[in-house]
Design brief:
It catalyses: Cleaves type-1 transmembrane domains using a catalytic dyad composed of serine and histidine that are contributed by different transmembrane domains. One of its GO terms (biological process) is proteolysis. This protein is an all-alpha fold. It has 2 domains: 70 residues, no CATH class; 230 residues, Rhomboid-like fold (Up-down Bundle), CATH 1.20.1540. It is 61% helix and 2% strand. The protein has a two-stranded antiparallel ribbon with strand order 1-2. The longest helix is centred in the last third of the chain and has 28 residues. About 4% of the residues have low confidence.
């Protein structure tokens, strides 16, 4: 630090920085070296911020990365990632994930070269495994493998959200583990196909936050469909899918994933699944003891994905805390949660809503 910034000004002269980059003895990833050179070329004041250099070298998400990317896209001349040869099975998968998720070639090369197995993408995998295990346990206990929401024994679970049990706060989260057969297959497939690659690129913290925000958005049900229960992890799944699909559409020209049109078909399938949920809500195939589960969890999850999720996916290697739009979204979400909590406490009695007795 003393050699680069002897006067302790917090800035490094470009000449010193360029000499360091050209004569360094450290084994840097090629893409990280590109970012360092781009950071130099993007500077117009003859000096580089020492803190930005530290953040870039330590792979922290920072605004310096955005600036380096913007310049690097015009000046870097390296071959594109698809031309890399001699890759092992895992590195080929990492390259596939990079092209599936990221819209910029420099972003893709950066992710490809700095990707490590630690920490692994465990959140989505663990959630999916627990959902399958819960389904199998209830199948064994009830001796029914085609579980349906109009079966009273299924709806008696302490995991299901029911308005009559809304004082049991854990049900606003635990409902995501309860599924009927076709719902489990649909959600598990989407979680593994979309959620795991997203977690590999954006990290466990951001993707788990997005997923759980989609799940917690089920509080919308207690406002808009006050008599309906909720089951299934569709809120979290739709938060992931809507964020990813919106990111693909907004960066259509830059995306190099081979199945962009397939994703649009996936969006139509998701829409049809919402239609099926609406149909089951108001026209169950068999008589039931009360209202069927609400479809509002799907829609509220999609809203979370398009707002909070899209900002997360567009902020690869950038600090969310430094973005004003992030705090606007967080403030809006917290405001919604507080309103929903007060609504659950007071609105049912004030409005005289007749809640069907729990199974």
């Amino acid at each position: 630090a003393l050699q680069l910034d002897p006067d302790n000004t917090g800035f490094i002269p470009v000449e010193n920085f360029t000499s360091l980059v050209e004569h360094h003895e450290l084994q840097l990833d090629p893409s990280k070296l590109d970012m360092l050179l781009a950071l130099v070329h993007s500077n117009e004041e003859g000096q580089v911020c020492y803190q930005e250099l530290i953040e870039l070298m330590s792979s922290k998400r920072s605004s310096s990365f955005r600036r380096a990317i913007a310049n690097g896209r015009r000046t870097l001349q390296r071959e594109i990632l698809l031309d890399e040869t001699g890759l092992g099975l895992y590195k080929r998968f990492v390259r596939y994930v990079a092209y599936e998720i990221l819209p910029c070639e420099t972003d893709r090369r950066w992710y490809f070269h700095q990707n490590r197995l630690c920490p692994p993408p465990v959140f989505i995998a663990v959630v999916t495994i627990v959902q399958i295990m819960v389904f199998m346990c209830y199948g064994i206990m009830l001796n029914k493998w085609v579980l349906q929401t109009y079966q009273p024994d299924f709806m008696k679970s302490p995991l299901v959200y029911h308005p009559g049990h809304r004082a049991q706060v854990w049900r606003f989260f635990s409902y995501m583990f309860m599924h009927v057969l076709e719902q489990l297959g649909f959600n598990a497939l989407l979680q593994l196909m979309i959620g795991v690659p997203l977690e590999m690129v954006h990290g466990i913290l951001r993707i788990s936050l997005l997923y759980m925000a989609g799940v917690l958005a089920s509080l919308t049900v207690s406002i808009t469909d006050m008599r309906a229960p909720v089951v299934g992890g569709s809120g979290g799944v739709y938060a992931l899918c809507s964020a990813h699909l919106a990111n693909v559409v907004m960066n259509w020209a830059g995306m190099r994933c081979p199945y962009k049109l397939l994703r649009m078909i996936l969006a139509l399938v998701c829409s049809s699944e919402v239609g099926r949920a609406v149909w089951l809500r108001f026209s169950p195939p068999l008589p039931s003891s009360g209202p069927q589960p609400s479809f509002m969890a799907h829609l509220s999850g999609a809203v979370v994905g398009i707002s909070m999720g899209l900002l997360i996916l567009r902020s690869y290697e950038e600090s969310l805390q430094k973005q004003c739009s992030w705090w606007v979204i967080v403030f809006s979400f917290i405001t919604f949660l507080l309103f929903a909590i007060f609504w659950n406490i007071f609105a049912y009695e004030l409005l005289g809503v007749q809640i069907p007795p729990p199974p």
